Every structure is written in C-alpha cells, then in structure tokens.
Amino acid sequence: MVKPTSVSNTIRSLRFANGEMTQAALADRIGVTRQTVIAIEQGRYSPSLEVAFQIAQVFKVSLDDVFQYPDLP
Amino acid sequence: MVKPTSVSNTIRSLRFANGEMTQAALADRIGVTRQTVIAIEQGRYSPSLEVAFQIAQVFKVSLDDVFQYPDLP
DNA sequence: CTGTGATGTTAATAATATTTGACATGGAAA
DNA sequence: TTTCCATGTCAAATATTATTAACATCACAG
Fold first, then answer.
1. Angle at A9 between CA A16 and CA A37, to 5 degrees
2. Global pTM?
3. ipTM for the whole complex
4. Listed residue (A55, A51, A67, A8) closest to B62, CA to CA
C-alpha cells in the first residue's frame, strides 16, 4: 500500500445492507470496474466526486453517509 | 468546453457568504492553487473527494451543501 | 474432490486532476 | 493616468486516479 487516502467510507456495510450486493454488481451499477470498487472500498485512493455521487445514489443516501473525512486537529 | 463536469457547486455563493473570501484565499485554506479553485468553481472539472471535503470544511457545511449531482432521469 | 462465485492482488496503461507560469481584463483606488 | 487586486485564460508538465487483464485465495455447493 503506497499511500492510503485519508477519506474512509462505509461502502461495505451499505452493500450488505442492500441485499448482499456484490462488488461486481455495484461496479456494474455505477459503471466502473470491479477493481475500482475494491480499491475505493479499501481506501487505497479516494474516487472522483462523480463516482462518489454515483455510489451514494445507488444506496439512496447522501454523500456524507458514504464517505467520512477527519476533522481538523 | 472540452468536457464540463456534471457536478455543479455553490462555491461562489459560499465565498461571498463568508466575508468576501477571495479565490486565492480559499485556495490557500485548502492547499491548492488559485487556478484549481477557478476551474472547480466554474465546473470545468470535478475535484477529488479530498479537495471537496476540504472545501466543505472551510465553509463549515456538508458536502451536499457545496456540490450537487443531477438525479437519475 | 471438483467447480464456481466472491474477493483480493499486482502491474501496466489510460484518463483526469492539479500545478506552474505567463499573460489579459475590469474595477477601484491613489 | 497609473497602480493594485480579483478574476480569468491558456498551454505544458506532473501527480493522482481509473481501467484492464491475469492470476490467487477462500468458502461452499454439488
């Protein structure tokens, strides 16, 4: 892992909360590859705003329900 | 002109609502260049999630208050 | 045991975001 | 007018993120 992003997310929980949606199924819904979903879910990098919005849209939640950014120290 | 993003934002309003903050001042606060702020504000491309979070943090609002994504048709 | 689906890894490449630096414009002072 | 400041534009370079493909592991059904 070269440089994990500082943005965390709840994608894994949201997938399971939505009928055991697989990573491949989610990737399909938002039009990216399965590897992209894996990388984002693992926090290996933070996605573009557009992809982030699409993920939130699939789960019918707000952006802030999917991604968390640490407060200033 | 080449390919405007589908994500819109309220950065300009937020800047003026926060004591006439200039683009340069905002760029400074979030650690990017002035040109980046201009491009984002104009919707020429959507920023990374991290930059998006930092902008929201400066104005003390949520991500959804800064950026808007069109609903599914 | 064999096969299958879900998940994970890596490396290479493509695409997009960001930086840098230079220059232009309009408005508001001095 | 001249100067300063905020805004905007452009092109080229770098950095970051996304895509693809190939392969590995694990759990589990048959």
1. 70
2. 0.89
3. 0.86
4. A67
